[in-house]
Design brief:
This protein is of the alpha+beta class. The chain is built from six helices and eleven strands. It is globular and about 40 Å long. It starts with a strand and ends with a strand.
């Protein structure tokens, strides 16, 4: 098995297959419209890949890169081709192409859900393929994910720089000993801005506890400064 790849653009011949897979693979609350992916295709740091086994469309991956890492925000395999080794080969092709740390997110295992076995299988797949947990979590639009990386180390700045380009609003909580660095990003007339909070705590904060305390405004005086990403 030797996969080939093509870049997906607005004139891509199998755009209908990409659209159908996007709808099938991602629940509505996590799905990004195909038009949003295509907005980035003229950017030098963004690649929207389609993968083929000879003439058969296998799947797609959308990645954004910087000098230290590349971030895969969406990655999907055609349903009838899953568990056939294609996912592993695509990961290897991406690592070979970028030659730097690979970053991605998976659904957390430590929260109540109705698809725990599916989440465990997904996590096991990435761990088998050389990924490690960054001990950092992403929360946006009421969704929560664990950040994984494949490489020498997790570089928070590299992750932030690459992943922020893919989300309309991001809250990143990195647990560093007893401190949590919280980054809030929002769009302001098309220009991304945000605020940094540094939370001192005697114990690690869960996402839920962070939300409760922030809602009660216990951290309103810990804003360090506004900044542009």
């Amino acid at each position: 098995m030797r996969l080939t790849s093509q870049l997906i653009t607005e004139t891509f011949s199998d755009l209908d297959k990409v659209e159908r897979l996007n709808i099938e693979a991602f629940p509505e609350e996590e799905r990004i419209p195909l038009s949003e992916f295509l907005r980035y295709t003229d950017n030098d740091d963004a690649h929207f890949f389609a993968f083929y086994n000879e003439e058969e469309f296998v799947g797609f991956a959308f990645a954004i890169s910087n000098a230290k890492a590349f971030y895969v925000s969406f990655f999907a395999i055609m349903p009838h081709l899953r568990s056939h080794g294609y996912g592993q080969e695509i990961i290897e092709k991406l690592v070979e192409f970028y030659q730097r740390t690979m970053l991605l997110e998976v659904e957390r295992l430590d929260e109540e859900c109705d698809n725990l076995e599916q989440r465990r299988a997904r996590m096991d797949f990435y761990l088998r393929n050389g990924f490690k947990t960054a001990n950092a979590f992403l929360e946006y639009d009421d969704l929560s994910f664990e950040i994984l990386y494949r490489g020498d180390q997790f570089d928070e700045e590299a992750y932030r720089d690459s992943s922020i380009n893919c989300k309309q609003r991001i809250t990143l909580i990195s647990v560093l000993n007893t401190d949590a660095l919280v980054i809030i990003r929002q769009e302001n007339h098309g220009i991304p801005h945000g605020f940094i909070f540094l939370i001192k705590s005697s114990e690690k904060l869960s996402l839920g506890e962070y939300g409760r305390q922030r809602t009660s405004k216990k951290f309103h005086d810990l804003v360090l400064s506004p900044f542009a990403f």
